[in-house]
Amino acid sequence: MRRLLSVIGVFLLTVLPLMSSTLAGGRDCRPLNGRWNYIVDPMDTGIYKYHMTLQKPHKRFFADRHFYQDKTKLVEYDFDRAPELSVPGDWNTQSERLYLYEGTIWYRTVVDFQKVAGRRWFLHFGAVNYQCMVGLNNVILGTHKGGFTPFEFEVTDVLQEGPNSLVVWVNNTRGVSEVPTQNFDWWNYGGITRDVTLISVPEVFIKDWRMRFDGREASFDVSLDGGTGSVTVEIPELGIKKKACAGRDGVAHFKLKVSPEPWSPDNPRLYDIILSSGVDRIEDRIGFRTVRVEGEDILLNGKPVFLKGVALHDETIGTNPGRCKNKEDVKALLEAAKDLGCNFLRLAHYPHSEQMVRLAEEMGFLLWEEIPCYWNIDWSSEETYANAENQLLEMIGRDYNRAAVIIWSVANETPHTRERLSFLGRLIARTREEDPSRLVSAAMEKKLTNPQHAVVEDELISLTDIISINQYIGWYNGTPADCDSLVWSIPSGKPLVISEFGGGALYGNHGSDKELFTEEYLALLYRKNLEMLGKLPSLRGLCPWCLKDFRSPKRPLTGIQDDFNRKGLIDEQGRRKQAFFVVRDYYSK
Ligand code: GCB
């Protein structure tokens, strides 16, 4: 593995993917989704041979050679005869033998292509977990690390007329210096988990655009690539059509006076926007809203808002749940959250798909997005920091123009050490530099100085806009009845959001409210917690943990967990536990 990572390191130095941006949004993209052939390669044969014995290229899986076309040559693989996996899709839930697999899988598809003069082409991946190396027609385009954010490579000079071989080495091995690290409470779904698309743009094209709204003025920064020129921004419903020239840096700046209906959960108003430059054209939808903190209040469009939230993983509802693959998958989750009465979602613990964010915006959810700096990562490593920062910037780059997103969160439940403070302090500063218009937080923890006293104390609080606390009174700490007498000490002056609370129950498991994992126990836990939390003066938001039972290898209790974290308000099939109705009643008041 070490050797392999160093191979990747060499590639990383030479070929980096284009910084993720809004390139894919609002354009006609040709999907390359479908059934791709795959080879399971736990020994990394396809890459080691490539690295160690360049004289024997028949071992290079990137070469996509075929034994069955000429059996006089020794070629010990043939994608044409290999089984298939759906892309997008995690591999774990597509084949029983891959359920627990962590390691390398090679993917191959054939892309038919006709050149069009004056066009450039980009190969875009929505997400690949955890790292990958991409080859097109035996040319290594580059590598990417981080399982939940998009990236792309320009392929204009590599694409050929006719069939093209696209081979992707994917590896989901956990690592102590990776982000997330080796230990986390969700399924390590491997594979090409989100859409793959081929994007066609003209020679000079809009590479990125970013909009900020301060309540009266909308500022746009539109970046061109491949040359310079003028850019036009149109928002027909607001009567706006403005042109500006890109400066030497390739960026055109606009400051437009607008008076839109503000976007909010009650009125998730979106406007058509058209950006054009020469023959390039992007059509998208945007919302206008402001968000800021004033004392202990969160102000949305200048008015205090209470975040009626729920936290969720990017995992489908169904009898064999896996990573969400399409709009229908995320819609089912969002509808469950709507029925719960939510206006806010914590997309835990890593960036969810762009489809999720866009649909949530249309449906009127405020969003918390986060990167997987989860529990105890390698705080002292510069490489780990660079990886975390890259994931952060790719997340912000993708969703910068989404009005729904109000909070960027940099971490979850991290230990109080000097190294962690410095690491997260840097990440927070970088977040603010990249996007000064949103709130920044990190999910922190309370400590119990004795069973009756919960204290919130963390140096990180001085750096965040919100005090976000995960707490499990009645589950990991004491019993639900402890909520009646617990005294809280929480710093004042900032809004408090309980970013997690809850416990486990198996749907349909009924019994006494003293018996763990019964629906009755969980319902009581929620009643008691809501009663207690509702009295905290600075409380401005709640996020039960969590919406749906999700797969986790850390949950092996036979007959109850069976590889599921049972803290959902609904089970993996969408069936509502009693606790769902407790939370729903609370939110409806
Ligand atoms: C937590 C973590 C979350 C876990 C949850 C649990 O504090 O943030 O990722 O899944 O507790 O169920 O223990």
> How many domains make up the coordinates?
3
- At the first level of CATH, the class of the largest domain is Alpha Beta
Number of strands: 35
Regions with little confidence, pLDDT below 50 for 5+ residues: 1-20, 53-58
The CATH level-2 architecture of the largest domain is identified as: Alpha-Beta Barrel
Largest sheet: 8 strands, parallel, barrel
Question: What is the topology?
Answer:
Layout: H1 2-14, E1 29-31, E2 34-40, H2 45-52, E3 84-87, E4 104-113, E5 119-125, E6 128-129, E7 131-136, E8 139-145, E9 151-154, E10 162-171, E11 191-192, E12 196-202, E13 205-213, E14 217-225, E15 230-235, E16 240-245, E17 251-257, E18 271-277, E19 280-286, E20 291-294, E21 297-300, E22 303-304, E23 307-312, H3 327-340, E24 344-347, H4 354-363, E25 366-370, H5 382-399, E26 405-412, H6 418-434, E27 439-445, E28 447-450, E29 453-455, E30 467-470, E31 487-489, E32 496-500, H7 519-533, E33 539-542, E34 550-551, E35 564-565, H8 578-588
Parallel strand pairs: 23-24, 23-33, 24-25, 25-26, 26-27, 27-30, 29-31, 30-32, 32-33
Antiparallel strand pairs: 1-12, 2-3, 2-4, 4-10, 5-9, 5-12, 6-11, 7-8, 7-10, 13-14, 14-17, 15-16, 15-18, 18-19, 20-21, 21-22, 28-29, 34-35
(2S,3S,4S,5R)-3,4,5-trihydroxy-6-oxo-oxane-2-carboxylic acid (GCB) is lined by residues 185, 349, 412-413, 470, 500, 545, 565, 567.
